[in-house]
Specification:
Elements: E1 12-13, E2 17-18, E3 23-29, E4 34-38, E5 41-45, E6 50-51, E7 61-68, E8 73-82, E9 85-87, E10 100-102, E11 125-133, E12 136-143, E13 146-149, E14 154-158, E15 160-169, H1 180-186, E16 210-214, H2 216-231, E17 236-240, H3 248-262, E18 266-270, E19 280-285, E20 293-298, H4 301-304, E21 337-341, H5 346-361, E22 371-376, H6 388-392, E23 398-399, E24 406-407, E25 414-419, H7 428-437, E26 441-445, H8 458-462, E27 470-474, H9 488-494, E28 499-505, E29 510-512, H10 519-532, H11 539-548, H12 559-565, E30 566-569, E31 589-590, E32 599-604, E33 614-619, E34 629-632, E35 638-643, E36 648-658, E37 670-674, H13 680-696
Parallel strand pairs: 16-17, 16-18, 18-21, 22-25, 22-26, 26-27, 27-28
Antiparallel strand pairs: 1-3, 2-3, 3-15, 4-5, 6-7, 7-12, 8-15, 9-14, 10-29, 11-12, 13-14, 19-20, 23-24, 28-30, 31-32, 32-35, 33-34, 33-36, 36-37
Helix pairs in contact: 2-5, 10-11
Length: about 700
């Protein structure tokens, strides 16, 4: 979740205060919004804000507010105090909010205006809900500093909004595990990080990073992935679904148990839906002048967000906005990051594991990692929204379109554009040629179905010849519908070649007519921004970050629909090769010999080209491998101590990881010889000989 500099409208955070009356407050300050002309309409821009509301209502920006609550506290009452009210003038004609349209739909006109308000939105904030991240409770609000008077066309804004929260006694979350890495993550997500100090830390007896769940048939293949992961310092558990129960609720309970007891961050589901079940979540979204969209969709979000129930009313619709604890919203902030290997056979599992390992082994200097393909199709006659290329261009460099800022591919990347236009249409041979040359990433916006994506069919994917594997993100409809017969995301990741990972939609993707601020585009831009703006290089974490950055918009049009359906087909712990990892640490320096049971210190250091903070993991040669220790400054010497319980010669080595997940090679080994401890008799005898020697002198 980003915290970045403000350009159009500067936001200044004031310290959160806790008073004796059990209240907290957060103050937000804004500079004057920017008003731009778009044809006959006026548009209001407020940095890091987004258009909020229903189709046909005035398009005004709302600002995200993520407020951490003290441990053991809940919300009794929320008040908003506003500062100076400043008018920007009258006579403005705001564009109505567009209606969400599936990529498969025919063109439609602008929605009818719904401007029957004395003041819009007429309130200072909208409460989205209280969500929990690893036991840290976060209140999410949408703030409305900009207001509109439809009758006169006046726009005004408040320079300051102070949110005061009266607290009541609450419960300590059963999912609070109190480890340091969780605190470090939550302070990145909230506007008042100092409140994290009210949560008490503790230690876990055992710590792992990755849980793989598969069946007995495929376990041997996924054990190969486990062995590779552990050779890279990533402690991994592999469990059989037969030992858990082939039921989505039992599986979620098991993941919760491992999360609490072993400290995992990632879960890889090793099997298609008939091997590893998926929870079918129900989602509903409103459009204008058509029947509402509603459906059930497979969503592995259910295994990522572990707080509470997803079916409070015990009906057949899981995931309703009132299906969380006590009829509130379901949990939408993830405790663990989840991906799926949608494989059925041993060969498909081998293909998936091979591509995952081969990508991870790619060196940062490999030229193919600089190759990006953007593939945009003609969508229909929607003005600026007619061509996918207009959306995909927003993934390049810094983009401030549609009132918010994201960072995309830097200028040093080689970008191939396959863009439909009035005089050009790219075909299946074009995209096949691109894939076979080996791009790092492909980003697609266009029409799709279960067995059709990027103008390819399953047989086209099975015939790909690329030996450098790619990542694919597509906004197309149904390309990730893995509850059907094999979908395109499955073909790309389970086939011999193609992709090492994909993110694709389980149902319709949605865009807006006549502007590029569509719902699916929101997630796509935030995903790329997670990588290049926030330096979140883990695929699973970047996918979830793109959702949580949009959480304050969850009540807008089809945002919940898209939140549920964007599943990752791939290893969530895999790190994109964007940042240079640390160099191999220096050979550990320490004593070459020692005694059983005595502690000995070894030192090392690692150079990091970007100067990132470094964590170290020590292999002491006796079967004991430390957890990640740190962070430490790059290039500075650090020390670690260990004792050995029995005699022998032990080889000590160390691994380095930067703060963004990039892992070095293992260092050279240093040896230490541990002879037996001297017995009491031998110590007495030695003392006698020394005494005799002294007297003789």
């Amino acid at each position: 979740m980003k915290k970045k500099a403000i350009i159009i409208a500067l936001l200044l955070f004031m310290p959160t205060m806790i008073s004796a009356k059990d209240e907290i407050s957060v103050k937000y300050s804004f500079k004057e919004p920017l008003i731009k002309k778009l044809n006959s309409y006026d548009e209001v821009y407020l940095e890091k804000s987004s258009i909020y509301g229903n189709a046909g209502e005035p398009g005004l920006p709302s600002y995200p507010s993520y407020i951490l609550l003290p441990q053991g506290k809940s919300v009794k009452k929320i008040r908003a105090n506003v500062g100076e009210k400043i008018s920007l003038g009258k006579g403005y004609n705001l564009m109505p909010i567009e209606k969400p349209i599936p990529f498969s739909s025919l063109p439609a006109g602008l929605p009818s205006k719904n401007f029957n308000f004395s003041v819009y939105p007429g309130k200072i904030f909208t409460e989205i809900g209280i969500y929990s991240f690893r036991g840290y409770n976060i209140l999410v609000l949408a703030l409305h500093p900009v207001q509109y008077v439809p009758s006169s066309g006046e726009i005004f804004y408040y320079k300051e909004i102070e949110i005061e929260i009266e607290l009541s006694k609450g419960k300590v979350s059963p999912l609070f595990r109190g480890i340091g890495k969780d605190r470090k993550e939550v302070i990145k997500k909230v506007d008042n990080p100092e409140i994290a100090n009210t949560y008490k830390l503790k230690n876990l007896d055992q710590s792992y990073e990755l849980l793989i769940i598969t069946n007995k048939k495929l376990k041997g293949i996924f054990n190969e992935l486990k062995d590779y992961k552990e050779s890279r310092g990533i402690k991994t558990i592999v469990e059989e679904i037969e030992n858990i129960g082939n039921d989505s609720d039992r599986l979620r309970d098991y993941i919760r148990e491992v999360y609490l007891n072993y400290g995992i961050d990632y879960v890889l589901l090793g099997g298609d839906i008939d091997i590893i079940p998926a929870k079918m979540l129900w989602v509903y979204g409103l459009d204008e002048e058509v029947d509402p969209y509603e459906t059930f969709m497979p969503s592995d979000l259910y295994y990522a967000c572990l707080d509470g129930t997803f079916n409070y009313d015990n009906d057949d619709k899981w995931g309703e906005p009132t299906d969380g604890e006590n009829g509130k919203d379901v949990d939408l902030i993830a405790e663990v990051y989840v991906g799926r290997a949608c494989v059925d056979s041993l060969q498909e599992a081998k293909n998936f594991v091979k591509k995952t390992i081969e990508y991870d082994k790619a060196g940062i200097s490999d030229p193919y990692l600089n190759e990006i393909c953007l593939a945009g199709e003609y969508l229909g006659d929607y003005g600026i929204a007619s061509y996918g290329g207009n959306y995909l261009d927003q993934l390049i460099g810094e983009c401030k379109d549609d009132g918010y800022s994201t960072h995309g591919f830097p200028s040093n990347y080689n970008i191939t554009k396959l863009y439909d236009s009035e005089d050009y249409y790219w075909n299946r041979e074009d995209i096949i040629n691109v894939i076979n040359k080996g791009p790092h990433m492909i980003h697609h916006l266009g029409h799709s179905s279960v067995e059709y994506n990027m103008r390819l069919m399953p047989q086209d994917v099975e015939g790909l010849e690329n030996e450098k594997y790619c990542f694919i993100y597509s906004q197309g409809c149904y390309a990730g519908a893995f509850d059907y017969s094999d979908c395109m995301a499955e073909y790309f990741t389970k086939s011999k070649n193609g992709a090492f990972a994909c993110i694709m939609n389980a149902r319709y993707g949605f865009f807006w007519s006549y502007r590029t601020d569509g719902d699916s585009q929101r997630y796509h831009r935030e995903f790329v921004d997670a990588i290049f703006g926030e330096k979140i290089f883990s695929i699973g974490k970047a996918n979830q970050d793109s959702k949580e950055d949009n959480l304050y918009l969850i009540k807008r049009s089809m945002m919940r629909w898209c939140y549920y359906q964007l599943n990752l087909f791939g290893d969530p712990s895999l790190i994109f090769h964007i940042n240079s990892p640390p160099e191999k640490p220096a050979k550990p320096a320490g004593s070459p010999k020692g005694r059983v049971g005595h502690e000995y210190s070894f030192s090392t250091y690692a150079i990091d080209a970007e100067g990132d903070e470094i964590y170290y993991k020590w292999d002491w040669g006796d079967g004991n491998i430390s957890d990640w220790m740190g962070p430490f400054k790059a290039n500075e010497s650090i020390n670690a101590t260990h004792s050995w319980g029995k005699r022998g010669v032990y080889n000590v080595r160390v691994l380095a990881k930067d703060e963004y997940g990039g892992i070095s090679e293992w260092s050279e080994q240093a040896s230490i010889a541990i002879p037996c401890n001297k017995t009491i008799f031998s110590r007495i005898l030695e003392a006698i000989f020394k005494l005799m020697d002294f007297r003789m002198k």
